[in-house]
Design a protein that fits this description.
Protein name: Glycosyl transferase family 1 domain-containing protein
GO molecular function, one term: glycosyltransferase activity
Largest sheet: 6 strands, parallel
Shape: globular
CATH architecture of the largest domain: 3-Layer(aba) Sandwich
Number of strands: 12
Distance between the termini: 20 Å
CATH superfamily of the largest domain: Glycogen Phosphorylase B
Pfam families: Glycos_transf_1 (PF00534)
Helix content: 25-40%
Radius of gyration: 21 Å
Strand order of the largest sheet: 2-1-3-4-5-6
Number of helices: 15
InterPro entries: Glyco_trans_1 (IPR001296)
Keywords: Transferase
Strand content: 15-25%
CATH class of the largest domain: Alpha Beta
């Protein structure tokens, strides 16, 4: 039987994608987006990892100004040079999985101008449903992004509300949009008995993370660790430790050494900001407090799998933190039920199964 040729296009600082895919290193596989568990008896799988930065060579010497302007208003890059740099691999594939918004629109740019017509392009879109607020009234730009997205054979979003927004805001046919729930590596992210060192742990680097509200909500006696590359300006508390650039094994230890995990984000309508950290913490059987949003309401139930707080509300977040600190029974309940939900429905294998269905039926 002839195998279907699948190409994953990444744009990530992970340098050991191949070793993770082969199971040769102890690293989580969720950001392989289901690639690792695809059935190799029916799929011939390859990947490329396009660098985020580098010298402006080739076409980028002429297009970088356009890319900079695009990124300024859309808040997402447009790496149109990926196709030219990796043309041999891209031409080889029958189906292409574009991970992340910027990779998707960078490849769809070439489809717009007549290239890659014989390929099936599956575009993962996580942020464009939300970030349209930055350029909604710049009509030529909105038209251009809409035109790019409509070139995809399939658009993959992380929630039904995001799918609905892509259809409404960009005019993409609903039949092209597929809600594809994210899953994490439960073999890596798991509970381990550790001495509790921190009362609260929080983690994340994306532009939506709201550490300011968390810092304002903590008590003076809370011992807190923040894992982030973001510049946290208002930390004037010796009990707050800020770490960056640590390994995933260290992050896993911190989950297990913290009584409560808080994933704070600004108010969002369609973007699933912090979802990977949320699932990692639940897989480590930790109780999680997270900012309320429609995408998370699709998956998690308040008081059952987590506690939601009103985004930006210091008072509400403080109440939820104190509630979990003082109610060990509730903390144990949501940690256990959250853990069971993740392991039963939101794993790397589940992601791979969804991709398998997509390749066979779309």
């Amino acid at each position: 039987m002839k195998k279907t040729k699948i190409l994953f296009i990444f744009r990530t600082p992970m340098e050991n994608i191949g070793q993770i895919n082969d199971g040769k290193v102890d690293e989580p596989a969720e950001f392989l987006w289901g690639m690792k568990d695809l059935d190799r008896s029916i799929y011939d799988v390859r990947f490329i990892n396009a660098p985020r930065f580098g010298k402006r060579t080739g076409i980028r010497r002429f297009t970088w100004i356009f890319e900079v302007v695009f990124a300024k208003y859309v808040r997402i890059g447009l790496p149109i040079d990926i196709y030219l740099k990796y043309k041999k691999d891209i031409v080889w594939a029958d189906e292409i999985v574009c991970t992340y918004d910027q990779v998707s629109i960078g490849i769809l740019f070439w489809r717009l101008f007549g290239f890659l017509r014989k390929k099936k392009i599956h575009a993962i879109v996580m942020s464009l449903s939300e970030r349209i607020v930055y350029f909604k009234n710049i009509y030529p730009l909105k038209w251009f992004v809409s035109l790019l997205l409509r070139q995809a054979d399939t658009i993959l979003t992380l929630s039904d509300v995001a799918s609905q927004a892509i259809e409404k805001e960009y005019g993409v046919e609903r039949t092209k949009i597929y809600t594809w729930y994210f899953g994490i590596d439960i073999d890596f992210w798991k509970s381990k008995k550790e001495n509790m060192i921190y009362d609260i742990m929080s983690i994340g680097n994306d532009m939506n993370r709201d550490f300011e509200t968390l810092i304002s909500a903590i008590s003076s006696d809370d011992k807190v660790v923040l894992v982030t590359k973001k510049n946290i300006r208002q930390v004037h508390n010796d009990a707050v430790t800020v770490l960056s650039g640590i390994e995933n094994t260290e992050v896993r230890e911190l989950y297990n050494k913290s009584r409560i995990i808080v994933i704070p984000s600004i108010a969002l309508k369609t973007e699933s900001a912090g979802l990977s950290c949320f699932l990692q913490a639940l897989s480590c059987e930790r109780p999680v407090i997270i900012s309320d949003s429609p995408p998370f309401r699709e998956i998690f139930k308040d008081g059952m799998h987590c506690l939601f707080y009103i985004p930006g509300s210091v008072d509400d977040l403080r109440k939820k933190i104190e509630l979990l600190k003082n109610d060990e029974k509730l903390a144990k309940k949501i940690a256990t039920q959250g853990y069971e939900l993740v392991r039963n429905r939101y794993t790397c294998k589940d992601m791979s199964n969804q991709l398998d269905y997509l390749f066979k039926h779309r």
